[in-house]
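Lab notebook, design round three. We kept the backbone fixed and only want residue identities now. Task for the bench partner: fill in a sequence for the structure below.
Input structure tokens:
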């Protein structure tokens, strides 16, 4: 099917306005619907352009079709959308998608824990010591540090930390670069696109993907990892600096994510930096 010629057509997002069709995609340009006035109020002749009525009828009956052929949700009044008329994802849908991704990654992390030598045995020994102290009535004033040399966890856990960081980064990059959504986002009918390009084909551009990966995934991971490394070196779970970094990671993540709930374009800080939006696609 050939694409309609470029021009002004009824806006699929607002029946009272027109949006400019560039020949292959909607643009962000809109205007109020204009009529062609007749100079003589008693005249019954058609407007000066004999094809104007035909073009208007054709635009209504055969609106331009965007280049993206995937399903799109029905447009609802008052729902925030991209400039080309695709509904933006609600904040709670994004939270649900993140929880599903956490479960998926958690399964992989659990497999890694059992695959790394001495990791599970050291954790079990540490947990048993705490349990035995509590059952004997000798409740400890402070929980024994898992980084005590007797548990031999520093080396195995460092390996686990590196592997899980790589898994999370590769997972996010590959899924967004090739499919435009993670498993959790796909399950919720969400897709990450360049800002105001809701009909962008699947697959986030490289520059957007890298920026989003750094600010949304890498920075919190680094803060948490440095916190754990400090605990390892001091053989303590209550080091002031490590606790500060751990809190900073949590606050950082919440601030970046919560912004999307109050932004007119539903962008978190990571979306603003990367130039992305999350849209909702009909399933």
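Proposed sequence:
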């Amino acid at each position: 099917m050939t694409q309609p010629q470029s021009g002004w057509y009824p806006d699929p997002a607002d029946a009272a306005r027109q949006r400019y069709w560039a020949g292959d995609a909607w643009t962000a340009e809109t205007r109020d619907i204009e009529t062609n006035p007749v100079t003589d109020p008693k005249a019954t002749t058609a407007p000066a352009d004999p094809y104007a009525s035909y073009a208007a009828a054709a635009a209504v009956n055969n609106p331009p079709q965007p280049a993206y052929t995937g399903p799109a949700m029905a447009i609802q009044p008052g729902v925030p959308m991209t400039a080309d008329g695709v509904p933006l994802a609600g904040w709670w849908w994004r939270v649900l998608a993140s929880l599903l991704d956490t479960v998926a990654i958690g399964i992989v992390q659990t497999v890694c824990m059992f695959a790394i030598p001495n990791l599970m045995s050291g954790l079990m020994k540490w947990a048993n010591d705490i349990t035995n102290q509590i059952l004997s009535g000798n409740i400890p004033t402070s929980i024994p540090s898992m980084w005590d040399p007797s548990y031999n966890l520093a080396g195995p856990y460092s390996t686990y930390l590196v592997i899980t960081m790589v898994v999370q980064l590769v997972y996010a990059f590959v899924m967004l670069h090739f499919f435009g959504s993670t498993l959790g986002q796909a399950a919720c009918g969400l897709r990450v696109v360049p800002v105001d390009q809701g009909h962008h084909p699947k697959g986030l551009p490289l520059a957007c993907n890298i920026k989003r990966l750094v600010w949304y995934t890498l920075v919190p991971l680094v803060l948490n990892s440095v916190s754990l490394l400090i605990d390892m070196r001091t053989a303590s779970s209550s080091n002031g600096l490590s606790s500060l970094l751990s809190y900073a990671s949590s606050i950082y993540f919440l601030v970046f994510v919560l912004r999307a709930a109050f932004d007119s374009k539903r962008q978190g800080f990571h979306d603003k930096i990367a130039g992305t939006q999350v849209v909702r696609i009909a399933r």
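Keep this in mind before ordering anything: The helical segments are 52-61, 91-115, 119-135, 154-179, 183-187, 206-234, 240-258, 269-274.
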